[in-house]
Amino acid sequence: MRYSERKTKIMTAVLAAALLLLWSTRPALAQAPPSYSPDQLDKLVSRIALYPDPLLAQTLAGATFSDQIPDAAKWADEHHYLNGDELAKAISDDQLSWDPSVQALLPFPSVLDTMASDMDWTRSLGDAFLAQRQDVMDAVQRMRQKAKDFGYLRSNDQIVVNSGPYIDIEPVDPGYICVPAYDPLVVFWPPRPGFVVGGAISFGFGIHIGLAFRPWGWGAARFDWGGHALFIHDRPWGRVWGNRGVYVHPYPDVHRWEPARRTEGHSLIRRSEEERHAARFGQPHPAERHHR
User: Fold this and answer.
1) How far is CA 170 from each of CA 53, 84, 85, 112, 162, rounded to the nearest angstrom?
2) Which residues pair with 159 in a beta bridge?
3) Could you list the residue range(s) of the whole structural domain that residue 136 is in?
4) pLDDT tens-place string over residues 250-288
5) What pLDDT does 31 receive?
């Protein structure tokens, strides 16, 4: 075999091997988006559908970074003795590399533990929210409607259940977020004769989220159920399947912790709630009412 022919064959083999390697290691971003049926989505969201809206918003956003959840859960467990401003300072001091939506869940070790203990579910939940946000939000509303129709979901001392075209679950105190405990196999099905529905959902565990956590979006996380939009830090969450490799949600500098902010207490959180209420019911903005 002549040298030139042998060289051509070697180059062809090298090129083929390179193309095969490139194909086998191509980034996950090239994958086709998943597709879940309504029944599959109902099952996916059933564990978290009854979370208060702010906590549900942060959980869905954080699930889109599922690969960061195990390390975040470990950090939260190791720092479970911290809360409030001390926890916010520890998060900032550690210069954590996880997305702020994941860091926002650090005050809730039980939520992160639930996510980390079943990573198949967490990945599927995050992927579904990236690829089928509208369908995921519709599934949440279906499950909430079931729990409400069967008498399990109702307002109490910790949450307000607003019924209208859509079911909102809001904390009574915007600065105190409860994590409901319930069995999806119970609350989304008709109660057995004699079963006391009032005890099926427990709201005994909650976390005080003060102004120190506002840089992570707390106090300004919500849904526009009709528009199928999620807002974190009062800005639309625009991360979807197609841009998940490059999209960065606009947050303030979450690594800068300023204890002086605490002097404002709940005022900014409460102000955000007032503005949202005004927008919902067509009333003037609070600042506009002040100047009129």
Assistant:
1) 6, 21, 23, 21, 8
2) 171
3) 31-291
4) 998 776 555 534 333 333 333 444 444 444 434 443 333
5) 87
Three state DSSP letters for 100-142: HHHHCCCCCHHHHHHHHCCHHHHHHHHHHHHHCHHHHHHHHHH
Kind plus residue range of the DSSP H or E element containing 31: none
The answer to whether position 105 is within a domain reads yes
Asked, for residue 3, whether it belongs to a domain, the answer is no
Whether residue 276 lies inside any domain: the answer is: yes
Per-residue confidence (pLDDT) for residue 9, from 0 to 100:
57
Which residues in 90-105 are b (16+ Cβ under 10 Å) and which e?
Answer: ebbeeebebbbbbbbb
Ramachandran category for residue 34: left, alpha or beta (phi over 0 → left; psi -120 to 50 → alpha):
beta
| Burial of 195 (C-beta count, 10 Å sphere; 0-12/13-18/19+) | middle
263 and 225 Cβ atoms separated by less than 8 Å: no
Residue 201: closest CA among 52, 88, 43: 52
pLDDT digits 0-9 by tens, 36-87: 999 999 999 999 999 999 999 999 999 999 999 999 999 999 999 999 999 9
